[in-house]
From TrEMBL:
Belongs to the LysR transcriptional regulatory family. One of its GO terms (molecular function) is DNA binding. This is HTH lysR-type domain-containing protein. It comes from the Bacteria. Residues 1-56 form the HTH lysR-type domain. CDD domains: PBP2_LTTR_substrate. Keywords: DNA-binding, Transcription, Transcription regulation. One of its GO terms (cellular component) is cytosol. It comes from Caryophanon tenue.
């Protein structure tokens, strides 16, 4: 491609010497570029004379096409720079409420300090919803647990605790920690989490059966119901970052940690903006 630009430079400056100087080549290198182009097109394009250079008839015929090629290359380079700068790019993310409420806004804000023009499309769902969105290409990547994201490429990002969510008036709120057995005896509000429910798995692991009175979709409705003392629940501690709404949380005994990972199908085919954001997230671990 340099040979196309070399021809235009020779025509613009009227000599090989001046064109070579402007392009940072030696005169012999500039001559070689023109010869390479003439060999490619199988014709002579330029004739040198005492007054400078001039195009041959074939050169005149090829010139408009060479200009179009150079213009297209220039536009391609601008597009590349634009993509590398993440201009007008959209990052599509699947997230569950607790990560969308706590860490994600902070990460987005930090990322946009470097790439202010990037846009985000955030879709909220449970673990199974997010796995489905990743699989079908609705989102570029999503936040999941390792159990729900095991069929994708993923890396662990953060951890948080599962905690007991209680009304401030509930007797268990006076304790420093709450056992699963104590929670199992209370009217229980179960948050719907898709095909894999961490809370139910936790009870099953300890051979306990909770007294489920309500099955609710979404974190905030659960919190509101607990605040009305309709029952108790188990929720991620991330939900209580800057938020209580009439409830308190207590550590579980024994404690239970939740691992949060980022999952995607194939990093190589993701948009540049999404790959850049994934690299940024990996540094947060």
């Amino acid at each position: 491609m340099n040979s196309y630009f070399a021809l235009l430079a020779v025509l613009e400056y009227g000599s090989f010497t001046k064109a070579a100087e402007k392009m940072g080549y030696t005169q012999s290198a500039m001559s070689q570029l023109i010869k390479t182009l003439e060999k490619e097109l199988e014709t002579t394009l330029i004739i040198r004379s005492r007054t400078g250079v001039m195009l041959t008839p074939d050169g005149e015929a090829f010139l408009p096409y060479i200009k179009q090629i150079c213009q297209a290359i220039g536009e391609l380079e601008e597009k590349k720079k634009s993509m590398q700068g993440l201009e007008r790019s959209m990052i599509r993310i699947g997230a569950f409420s607790s990560i969308a409420y706590s860490y994600l806004p902070i990460w987005i804000q930090q990322f946009k300090q470097h790439y202010p023009a990037v846009q985000f499309d955030l879709k909220i769902g449970d673990y199974s919803d997010i796995a489905e969105m990743i699989a079908t290409g609705v989102v570029d990547f999503g936040f999941v647990t390792p159990e729900t994201g095991h069929t994708f490429e993923l890396f662990e990002l953060v951890e948080d605790d599962l905690v007991a969510c209680l009304s401030k008036e509930h007797p268990l709120a006076q304790q420093s920690s709450v056992t699963l057995a104590e929670l199992a005896c209370e009217p229980f509000i179960l948050m719907q989490e898709g095909t894999i429910n961490e809370t139910l798995s936790l009870f099953e692991k300890h051979q306990l059966v909770p007294n489920i009175q309500y099955v609710v979709e979404g974190d905030f409705p659960v919190i509101s119901m607990v605040a009305q003392n309709l029952g108790v629940s188990i929720m991620p501690s991330l939900m209580f970052h800057h938020f209580d709404k009439g409830v308190i949380h207590r550590p579980l005994h024994p404690p239970k940690r939740r691992k949060i990972s980022v999952a995607y199908k194939d990093k190589e085919i993701l948009p540049i903006a999404s790959r850049m954001f994934l690299q940024f997230l990996a540094k947060q671990h």
